[in-house]
Specification:
The complex is a heterodimer of chains A (148) and B (135). Chain A is of the alpha+beta class. Chain A has helices at 5-17, 20-25, 88-103; strands spanning 36-37, 50-53, 57-60, 70-82, 116-124, 128-129, 135-147. Chain A has a single domain, classed as 2-Layer Sandwich (STM4215-like). In chain A, strands 1, 2, 3, 4, 5, 6 and 7 form a seven-stranded mixed β-sheet that branches. In chain A, a hairpin with a 5-residue loop joins strand 6 (128-129) and strand 7 (135-147). The longest helix of chain A is centred in the middle third of the chain and has 16 residues, at 88-103. Chain A is elongated, with a radius of gyration of 16 Å. The termini of chain A are close together. Chain B has one domain (9-33, 60-134). In chain B, strands 1, 2, 3, 4, 5, 6, 7 and 8 form an eight-stranded antiparallel β-sheet that branches. Chain B starts with 12 loop residues before the first strand and ends with a strand. Classes of the chains: A alpha+beta (148), B mainly beta (135). The interface between A and B is medium-sized, with 12 and 15 residues.
């Protein structure tokens, strides 16, 4: 019994960093992290584009059973870009689309952490221009159900 | 005797024969009792109270959970019993195995619900066959 946030983030970021298509879109990055940052945080003066872990939300699980605890988790992944010939929201959406390809309806393997994730669905992806006028942000949220 | 305390629902254990049904969210045992009206018409102008005696007992059983007919052996058994019509030997402990309701029951319905944006659910509905016991 535990809260599966760390297990989810570990699996999710490993999936993104290991995807060659997404690696190709992360033009500011290189192996091993490809400008994709989890709970370790984004480095100061990180070049754009980059992907950062958003704020996860964990709630009582709709898949709680008598035998097994359940948790519902909102996994948020933030895509950050800046204005430029190859940047802006066009670049942000290209990255966001690939993230959707990687996660929507594709459950994570959390078995090493003692959880099962059997449900993951796209929930939202608002387009958020930042107040500095040159930075773009798309936080993509997926809804996960877990047991364990 | 200890002070009375409620029991948490997550302590429940539902079994088909001796096999635990894993994906259970709720269990309802609805015990019913018939009554028979034995009022005698008195002929009095003054209204009288009706009289009853206690009659036959029966129960229905409703188990709600998540569909997993692939990995859950108890769900496989229930599907087989639904199709063959044999009585299902069931038991339910509301307090982690300390005490148990049990009985035999026959299926009345077996609805599955498959919706694209939700967990796939199953419900197993029974008519009790003879007594439900508590020990």
């Amino acid at each position: 019994m535990a809260i599966p946030v760390l297990a989810i983030e570990t699996a999710a970021f490993a999936r993104m960093r290991g995807d060659t298509t997404l690696q190709g879109l992360m033009t500011s990055g290189s192996a091993p992290n490809w400008s994709i940052y989890g709970f370790e945080g984004v480095p100061i003066n990180q070049a754009f584009p980059y992907i950062a872990a958003g704020v996860p939300m964990t709630q009582a699980g709709s898949a709680e059973t008598m035998g097994t605890p359940g948790k519902d988790v909102r996994l948020q992944i933030s895509v950050m870009t800046q204005t430029g010939p190859d940047g802006g929201f066009a670049q942000a959406w290209a990255i966001a689309n690939r993230i959707d390809d990687l996660f929507n309806r594709k459950a994570l393997d959390l078995s090493a952490s003692g959880f099962s994730n059997f449900f993951i669905m796209f929930e939202s992806a608002p387009e958020l221009p930042q107040s500095d006028g040159i930075t773009q942000h798309i936080p993509i949220t997926f809804k996960l159900m877990t047991q364990g | 005797m200890p002070a009375s305390t409620p029991s948490a629902g997550y302590q429940g254990i539902f079994k088909v024969s001796t096999v635990t049904l894993t994906q259970v969210q709720s269990v309802e045992i609805s015990n019913g009792a018939e009554t028979y009206d034995i009022t005698v018409i008195s002929g009095s102008a003054t209204p009288v109270w009706k009289d009853f005696i206690s009659g036959l007992r029966s129960y229905t059983l409703k188990v709600v959970g998540f569909w997993d007919q692939v990995n859950d052996a108890a769900q496989v058994t229930l599907w087989s019993d639904f199709n063959s019509g044999v009585p299902v030997a069931w038991s339910y402990s509301p307090n982690g195995g300390t005490n148990t309701f049990s009985g035999n029951a026959v299926f009345t319905s077996l609805p599955f619900k498959f919706a694209v944006n939700a967990v796939e659910t199953a419900e197993w509905d029974f008519q009790g066959k003879q007594a439900v016991t508590f020990a």
